[in-house]
Amino acid sequence: MLSAALIRHLFLNAMSHNKLSVKDFYDNLAADYDAEQDAPNFRFVREPEKKLIQDFFDKEDFSGASILEIGAGTGRFSLLFAAACRSYTVVDLSPAMLQQLIQKAEREHITNITTIEGDFLQAPVSGSFDYIVSFTAIEYILDKKALFRKMAQLLKPGGKLFITTTHKTFIRFWGCFGNYFRQHIFMNMYSKREVKKLLRNNGLTPLLIEDHVLKRFPFKGILLVIHAQKN
Q1: Which sequence spans correspond to the domains of the chain?
Q2: How confident is the model at residue 183 (pLDDT cuts 50, 70, 90)?
Q3: Which of 9, 13, 188, 210 has a C-alpha 20 to 30 A away from that of 143?
Q4: Domain boundaries 4-230, corresponding CATH code
């Protein structure tokens, strides 16, 4: 039987390897990332996700708000939110992906974006935020408890969380398995029950937890939408 110390050592090693793999993979992909995401084999997920994000955006008033985005990448949705709020802070592990985001912001003359390079769990994010958003990115962060704890700490009282991520389903399991062979990166999956517990344990009230994409009986959707508010 493995000791607790050995299990912790193996877990920390896996987290360290995952960070390096994620950074290297996305540094190499950065210049072509947006084109890849618009390709037909990704569009079946990205188009519904885009609509869900747009629906959330349309229902909220971001004027005067401070927003933090986790795993912003090339900023596929960042500029939409940044143009509507007071300040927009992004964290990403890949400097090459962040450079793509910066170039987009410069072309659009958006000047309220602050970029932070690094692992979100260790990143020096200061202050507190009215909103925290993340779009199919938190699945690369292995320590779920630490992730939700830090998000809750960075939200202002009454602040809102909006996330899209991988839903724990049979189809998604095989998708993550295939993704490992493509990226050599471990990805987390989340169940609705697990998300509810993580939210409530950190003083966050669930407003919406729904699965989408390839949702056909008896299968559940592979994309999970999480909307919550800090008590």
Answers
A1: 4-230
A2: low
A3: 210
A4: 3.40.50.150
